[in-house]
Structure formats: structure tokens, C-alpha cells
Design a protein that fits this description.
Length: 103
């Protein structure tokens, strides 16, 4: 499982059933609706407005304002002979202050 903690005390964590958020003060976890992928790492953007997840299908991101809607941000590898594309498997990631994602 992966873990990220915001400066306001929100804990973002993954389990076998998805990604969740909960206050360090307690309460009911909120499901952030990232399902059907292996989740290896979590990271917050510098402004803590975006959560990134390193997954078995590349880097996914979602805005933390409003309903979660995950999108893939990892470029794909395109094979030369077939035109097929392959997603990267991301096992660790970090986000720099300027928004650069290191995966």
C-alpha cells in the first residue's frame, strides 16, 4: 500500500480495494474511485491540489477539488512494427515544486 499526507492533515492511502482519504483526526474514509489497478505509490502536487498515483497502468492523477476523476498522465511506449502502445508500470514517483513528475 502507498501513503501521502497533506499539510492540512488529510491522509491518502491505498489498499487492495482502491485509494482513500481520511482526516488524521478520524472519521469515515472517502473512496477516491481508483479501482482495477495495482497502486504502488502516491504523491501530492506542491500545492496539494492534485494527487498522483503510480500504478500498474502508468501515472494517474486526479484533482482533489470536486469528485475524483482519474486520468493517465504517463506517456506510452509505441512499438515501431505494430503500432501498439504499452503503459509503463510505475513503482515509485515524486512530484517536484515545478510540477515535474519523476517516475
Amino acid at each position: 500500500s502507498a501513503l501521502a499526507i497533506s499539510s492540512t492533515g488529510t491522509v491518502y492511502y491505498s489498499s487492495a480495494s482502491g485509494v482513500f482519504s481520511v482526516s488524521i483526526d478520524g472519521g469515515t474514509p472517502t473512496d477516491l474511485n481508483l479501482d482495477d489497478v495495482e497502486i504502488y505509490s502516491l504523491a501530492l502536487s506542491a500545492d496539494e491540489g492534485t494527487l498522483f498515483a503510480g500504478t500498474s497502468e502508468g501515472v494517474q492523477s486526479t484533482s482533489l477539488s470536486g469528485d475524483p476523476s482519474w486520468t493517465e498522465v504517463t506517456p506510452k511506449i509505441h512499438t515501431l512494427n505494430t503500432g501498439d502502445s504499452l503503459s509503463y508500470v510505475i513503482t515509485a514517483l515524486a512530484v517536484a515544486d515545478d510540477g515535474t513528475i519523476y517516475a
